[in-house]
Amino acid sequence: MDVMSQTEHQSEGPHVPVPSAATSQIMKAIANCQAAFTSKIDHLQSDLSCLWHDFDKIKERTMGVGQRVSDMEDASRQTGADTRRLLQQVQMLQARAEDAENSSRRNNILILGLPECAEGSAPEAFVEQLIKDTLRPTTLSNLFVVERAHHVPTRPLPPGSLARPFIMRILNYRDRDAILLAARQSGNIT
Questions:
Q1: Taking Cα atoms as reference points, which of 19, 17, 15, 10 lies closest to residue 2?
Q2: Which of 38, 101, 130, 135 lies at a CB distance of 3.0 to 4.6 Å from 182, suitable for a disulfide?
């Protein structure tokens, strides 16, 4: 009967093998592996999606940084041009200040060897009278004026040292020239 039943089964339709216990275990193991792989692939897809999202954010930030760097470079170029322009202005102003300082010193006369405190409390009047009495310049203007007069440096030196130089500013440059000419012609004055 066994033989008959097998042939009867064969004639009834396609033959479907009956799985054995080992085969069913293999099939379960394959199904478990497939489920594990599917789970891991889903995890990887999720992680990959996060990475793409992070990559897009980094790309956006990099583009923003690139724009800011470009803006800073443009501003730096402008700042460099401004700095060069300001340096030129500073140099021009320094030259003007030096010229003005030199101009203001042109009418100064320095007297060496004038004893300390000889000028008293009115140094300008003292120097005017000293020049008129000692040098007797003939070409002083009617408006001859000593604007300022004082010892340099302004603080007294220690006792026993030489007298400090005495500086005076003459209002008119022609009077200054006349005084200097008379001093050269007179030689050393004591």
A1: 10
A2: 135
Banded pLDDT at 15 (limits 50, 70, 90): low
- Residue 61 has, within 13 A of its CA and on its CB side, a CA count of 6
In sequence order, what E strands does 86-144 have? Answer: 108-111
User: The whole model's pTM is what?
Assistant: 0.48
CB-based contact 23:31 (threshold 8 Å)? no
Contact (CB, 8 A) for 182 and 135: yes
Cis amide bond preceding 115, omega within 30: no
Give the residue carrying structure tokens 């009278």: 129
Q: pLDDT tens digits for 48-72? A: 888 899 888 998 888 888 898 888 8
Token pair recorded at residue 164 = 């400090």
- In the predicted structure, residue 4 carries a pLDDT above the cut 60: no
Q: What is the pLDDT of residues 88-114, one digit of tens each?
A: 999 999 999 988 887 777 888 888 888
Cα distance between residue 148 and residue 23, in whole Å? 123
